[in-house]
TrEMBL record:
The keyword Transferase applies. It catalyses: L-homoserine + acetyl-CoA = O-acetyl-L-homoserine + CoA. CDD domains: GATase1_HTS. Substrate binds at residues 163, 192, 249. Keywords: Acyltransferase, Amino-acid biosynthesis, Cytoplasm, Methionine biosynthesis, Transferase. GO terms for cellular component: cytoplasm. Transfers an acetyl group from acetyl-CoA to L-homoserine, forming acetyl-L-homoserine. Belongs to the MetA family. The lineage of its organism: Bacteria, Pseudomonadati, Bacteroidota, Bacteroidia, Bacteroidales. The active site is at 142 (acyl-thioester intermediate), 235 (proton acceptor), 237. HAMAP family: MetA_acyltransf. This is Homoserine O-acetyltransferase. Pfam families: HTS.
């Protein structure tokens, strides 16, 4: 089934070139189907890139998915045209009366700041509380995962000696959990962060279950509330060249940055990228949509509580 996206969203034409079936709102209204309503709170600086990455992964399902984009009122993005934000994003305060089958909250470039010092922290905590009663299942990614774990469960984040940057091997701790259906014993995930959460803190919270970790990258995934909250520290959604762009950007700025681990062939930045996480990323998002959104959400969306 197709993705139902806002009319004229740039991702539509990009994904059509990849033979991904998308339709805009105008055409979707002609189909008599109850689509899954997914809202994305996109906090990443390059919003159009992140939109496309997430929409690509949400397309790998037989379900019809209707996607909306949320923004926070207390922050104005610097790297996305204001016309794009006005056309495709809606303030949280205008959406708070709505209910959604699923929600994705992305990372944000504020991870080295204390949570309470982030200018939009108060609005974020309102959204975290709102999601618990208005969304069937929420996927928290990278900084959002750390922020959600801190706000809901009191789990701190810790600074790393150097940036966790590259592609790392991971293992499942509960391989029969539905989120891992179809996963290999070892799978790869991109990471790009300066802070971490620690396994012992998660294991000390009875309401949380640690699902996956990496020898090198540490905690990868935890789940709470029976699958209504997933906290994911990596960036499974990244496209093949995202880490390359980050690496060359930081080099150009003269920032201390190492070559991303296990990313280029022979770890040589003059060679091509070796993509090893695409299959895992598609399984992760399709399993989430199937087992924790579609199979759990009520047909009457107003019954979500």
């Amino acid at each position: 089934m197709p993705l139902n996206l806002p009319d004229k969203l740039p991702a539509i034409e990009l994904l059509k070139e990849e033979n991904i079936f998308v339709i805009d709102n105008s055409r979707a209204t002609q189909q008599d189907i109850r689509p899954l309503r997914i809202v994305i709170l996109n906090l990443m600086p390059l919003k159009i890139t992140t939109e496309t990455d997430l929409v690509r992964l949400l397309s790998n399902t037989p379900l019809q998915v209707e996607i909306s984009f949320m923004k926070i009122k207390s922050h104005t993005p610097k790297n996305t045209p204001i016309e794009h934000m006005k056309a495709f994003y809606t303030d949280f305060y205008k959406m708070r009366g709505e209910k959604y089958d699923g929600m994705i909250i992305t990372g944000a470039p504020v991870e080295q700041m204390d949570f309470e010092k982030v200018s939009y922290w108060n609005e974020m905590t309102e959204i975290f509380d709102w999601a618990r009663t208005h969304v069937t299942s929420t996927l928290y990614i990278c900084w959002a995962a750390q922020a959600g774990l801190y706000y809901h469960y009191g789990i701190p984040k810790y600074p790393l000696e150097k940036k966790m940057f590259g592609i790392f091997e991971h293992r499942t701790l509960l391989p029969l959990h539905p989120i891992f259906r179809g996963f290999d014993d070892v799978f790869h995930v991109p990471h790009s962060r300066h802070t971490e959460v620690r396994r012992e803190d998660i294991l000390n919270v009875p309401e949380l279950t640690l699902l996956s970790e990496s020898k090198e990258a540490g905690v990868y995934m935890a789940v709470g509330r029976g699958g209504r909250e997933f906290f994911i520290t990596g960036h499974s959604e990244y496209s093949p060249l995202t880490l390359d762009t980050e690496y060359r950007r930081d080099l150009a700025k003269g920032l201390p940055i190492e070559v991303p681990c296990n990313y280029y062939v022979d770890n040589d930045p003059d060679k091509e990228v070796l993509v090893r996480w695409r299959a895992h990323a598609n399984l992760l998002f399709s399993n989430w949509l199937n087992y924790f959104v579609y199979q759990e959400t009520p047909y009457n969306i107003e019954e979500i509580e």
